[in-house]
Amino acid sequence: MPEIKLKRVLVVDDEEAMRTIMYHYLSDNGYEVATVSTGEECLEKVPAYKPDVILLDIMMPGIHGFDVLKQLKADPATSSIGVVMCSAKDYKPEKDLAFQQGAYGYLTKPFTLAQLLTIVKECLYRPRSPQTPPPSLVPTSGKRFTVTLDRSKPYIRFWGTRGSVPVSGTSFLRHGGNTPCLEVNDGHSTIIIDAGTGIRELGVRLMSEPPRPIHLFIGHTHWDHIQGFPFFVPAFRPETSLTVYGVSGFGKDLRSIFSGQLDADYFPVQLPDLPGTIEFRQLSESPTTVGSLKMYWEYVHHPGAAVGFKFSLNGKTIVYMTDNEFLKGYRGAPDAALLDAEILSRYSNLLQFINDADVLISESQYTNEEYEKKIGWGHTMLSNGCLLCKLCNVKRWIVTHHDPMHTDDFLQEKLLLTRQILNSIEYSIPVSHAFDGLTEYF
Ligand SMILES: [Zn+2]
Ligand SMILES: [Zn+2]
Prior knowledge:
Layout lengths: L7 E5 L3 H13 L3 E5 L2 H11 L3 E5 L7 H10 L7 E6 L4 H9 L4 E4 L4 H12 L30 E6 L20 E5 L4 E4 L4 H9 L7 E4 L5 H4 L14 E6 L7 H8 L15 E6 L5 E3 L2 E7 L7 E7 L2 E6 L19 H5 L2 H7 L4 E4 L5 H4 L10 H10 L5 E3 L8 H17 L6 E3 L5 E3 L1
Parallel strand pairs: 1-2, 1-3, 3-4, 4-5, 8-9, 9-10, 10-11, 15-16, 16-17, 17-18
Antiparallel strand pairs: 6-7, 6-19, 7-8, 12-13, 13-14, 14-15
Helix pairs in contact: 2-3
The structure holds zinc ion (ZN) (2 copies).
């Protein structure tokens, strides 16, 4: 059997207890260990023993740890050995000096055995020949490069793109986990659609800007579209003027719904106690004018009173319609010829509203398989969503309101499937998935 060569560690410490602990722990973990108690002994032992790593105490009688380090690094025969300084001195000057003199690491006493093992391992597998220190990533001179968002140009920014309930974790990093919130910037006003959890972060950003009137449009008042509102910090500053627009649900007006959400049973601050000026407005027949922007709305097919919105930025028509069940119950091929006039007539207002949109932001929350069990939940089946784009002559589709069960990988597959379906119905428009933070200029 070939002989297995263990990695060698030399422990240099004047404290016997420390040497014993380190000796046993490193030996038990597969290292060959030798110990010495002074700097002189260390310098004597190193040439013959040829350790891979030296754990070097600083405050020792006789030659000081830093002098030992200096001598080891000055000698070409020993300069490449990895040295980790071990000391109870937890001060920056000591650490800086250790690294300047070529130590690989600095372990502050008392350390855990796990920390000891980690640093020995890291030192063993460190990148070699770091004779010259790697260039610092932080520029020490010159002007720092910064970039800021240009708010003078019209844009939309997605702050939340998840339907139903927020999600978090490594499976959702690419798309994000916040529930719906869209910022619309026409260059003048602060316009927001939906107050899902994404509005919390938008609110934090607005606090760093001079206050200006905020116009918040709510598509409908299901939890995922209002649950971020209590955490919208601009409502907590007295100079804020906030107008909330929406349609009523089942009898309750918009103010009652928001006030109920802030009931003392659910939240520590109640609506009348919010310092900002908050006004609630029922959406009227005519479009709502905010600065240069006109906001149109239309009822969508979703349980309760729910609407989608339409506005123009720089001459481009954008429709935002998160929750909508197009062709409820239809599970056939996405071919308009297969649909009878009666079915389509139920959606005529909607089709007219979306017609010729430059950008449609909408959902197809369920794959065709998933939809089987979700008929009547108020969301569109994927192939029906593709057909909607074609029927309305939409130029570009951004899919949002992703299902909380759909991980990043699943959504990637779903997007490929979407393109495949669009191809099959000969309507290959650009289609993409919205994600938290996506910003599009117009
Ligand atoms: Zn929703
Ligand atoms: Zn809903």
